[in-house]
Amino acid sequence: MFLPNRHALHRQPLDEADAETLGIAGADTVERFLARRDNHLATPLHALPALAGELGLGTLYVKDEGFRLGLGSFKALGGAYAVFRLVLEEASKRLGRSVDVGDLDRPEVRSVAATMTVACATDGNHGRSVAQGAELVGAKAAIFVHAGVSDGRVAAIARYGAEMIRVDGNYDDSVRQAARVAAEKGWTVVSDTSWPGYERIPGLVMQGYTAIVREALGQVSEPPTHVFVQAGVGGIAAAVGGHLAIVLGEARPVFTVVEPARAACVFGAAKAGHPVKIAHGEATVMAMLECYEASPVAWRVLARVADAFMTVDEDEAIAVMRRLARPAGNDPAIVAGESGGVGLAGLIRAMADHKAELGLDATSRVLVVNTEGATDPRRYAELVGTSPADVLAGKVLSGATP
Question: How many CA atoms lie within 13 A of 204 on its CB side?
């Protein structure tokens, strides 16, 4: 499915609150917090000239979030950052003075953090970030996971000391239960999706993701002409598209949101003109994107900055995982999880079916984001036919099929 953005707000300025969240000052704050992380490094931006040539593009870049802060996903930037901000705000309130990121290890701040419990629902990656952030500052974490979250992903979260709570149903069911239980117990919900009356914290999570854009723009000689980014509830797409719109203005790239056909809630919002709960049936292999209602805050941004919305099928997502593991020519091998290469899958589909509508041609400079590595290595090996370790070690034959 493909839908140009026909919303009345398309290409209008961002809402004032969203512009503040996703603007330059917000990205500066994120950068300052990241500088305090021991394992912070800018993630690589890979050029794929062989694939660009095959597709008929000028250049193709993949921003690879597969090693972000040791968590293997872009989500490492959002949940933990929001936890840090919330702990510092609470400590400032209780201590009666301003405290900043450099104070996170002070005994009096850690004493405040120890009294706090942060909670969230997750498909895997966001919960891992929230749990890691809580462990780093000395807070407690309660993470709600739905029936479709693999045991491997649950274990990856639990290793940070979080209390794991299984929920019947899907991601949206876990979001509701996390909010209900947190309200009963006085916990702080750190969600990457928003709802009426709950917008600021999801905004902080989105603000963390602006680091991806800032780094990428500093890694290229010319800004991209086209960007394809995948969406679950819409947070990363809104953060990337919103920051690009603020920084580049009228020179911003054509921005396309890509989703699984089986869980296209942002596409549903684009079709209806507002967020709607979409019907769901069979689960998608793109597990981190299996969401059935767009975040209202994310939609508010995407209504303005997205130029098109599209979906890809299950086999397209898997094919991209395999292609990135077995590149042609001198393209580097990249480990992309089930949801990691969905933006690239959208680009490949667009080059076949929607090239003219998006203005894609041999002069186009395209940026996509590999949003996750092999966050479930066993599942990755099942789908790709080899282990992520072998891909990274260069033991997989280029161009081979599993």
Answer: 18
Helix/strand/coil for 205: helix
Q: What does the pLDDT average to over 168-189?
A: 95
Tell me if 70 is assigned to some domain. Answer: no
pLDDT in tens, 256-285: 999 999 999 999 999 999 999 999 889 999
Residue 226's DSSP bridge partners are 254, 366
Question: Percentage of residues in the chain with pLDDT exceeding 70?
Answer: 99
Crossing angle (nearest 10°) for helices 151-158 and 377-384: 150
Buried b (16+ CB within 10 A) or exposed e, 243-269: bbbbbeeeebbbbbbbbbbbbbbbbbb
Mean pLDDT of the chain, nearest integer: 96
Q: Give residue 246's pLDDT band: very low, low, confident or very high (50, 70, 90).
A: very high
190, 213, 237: which is the final residue of a domain? Answer: 190
β-strands 59-64, 163-167: how paired? unpaired
Which helix H or strand E contains 29, and what residues bound it?
helix 24-34
Structural domain count of the chain: 2
Give the CATH number of the domain where residue 113 resides.
Answer: 3.40.50.1100
Domain hosting residue 104, numbered range? 75-190
- Regarding whether 326 and 221 lie in a shared domain, the answer is yes
Q: Which residues are catalytic?
A: 75, 123
Output the pTM of the full model: 0.94
According to the model, what pLDDT value does residue 401 have? 43
Has residue 30 been placed in a domain? yes
In a domain, 350, yes or no: yes
In a domain, 41, yes or no: yes
